[in-house]
Amino acid sequence: xxxxxxxAVVLVLALQGCSADDDSSxxxxxxxxxxxxxxxxxxxxxxxxxxxxxxxxxxxxxxxSPGPTASATSGLGEAPAPAGFLDGKRQVFxxxxxxxxxxxxxxxxxxxxxxLQVTDDYTDRALFVPVxxxxxxxxxxxxxxxxRAGGEPFCLQVRAAAxxxxxxxxxxxxxxxxxxxxxxxxxxxxxGRTTYAVRNRAAFxxxxxxxxxxxxxxxxxxxxxETTFTLQDQGAxxxxxx
Length: 242
Description:
By secondary structure, the protein is α+β, with helices and mostly antiparallel strands. It has helices at about 1-25, 40, 45-55, and strands spanning about 90-100, 100, 105-110, 115-120, 130, 140-150, 150-160, 165-170, 180-190, 195-200, 205-210, 215-220, 225-235.
């Protein structure tokens, strides 16, 4: 599975590299121009500060305290989701996109250890149901579409561990800030479907395929948003009645 995903990443990066080469050859910079490299212009990641200040279940602060305002959402679209995708009536696959490029054979799924990761496991472990918190709030719980404990679904929750914010499964609790996610339209995929940035307060779900962390939640400040998601419909939700 890891070889398959790494192969997909290498293909995506290669295609992006070819595109960059074509652009540079078409319009070479003048000899007198100077610009900062992307690493110098980008704001530093807030992942370390978030992990340092939060305990288990915290993002950028203790549970229950308001999180910092996310500045990375400026410029993101505000188009509403298709009916049912975000109102708890449909179960979906989360298909990750890296730098607005679709990743083949890749889907978010719960691993055997209970952590959310990018995998090629298109089974019940990859089914999720975004359910509104209620009261007109924009946040949503992300419930497991098929995985159960005592007949009840799990909910995704951000957890701080060893300076990294990971996403794990936990018993659902709409009063737990670390379980409340916001979906913000970011564009369209190749089939015209809305793509979304997904965040818990100021920490966005981001995938680092070439590192050891994999999928994490991190504050990105003014840096470019690298990971977005297409929601692929998988039929009516089968959650137990509340």
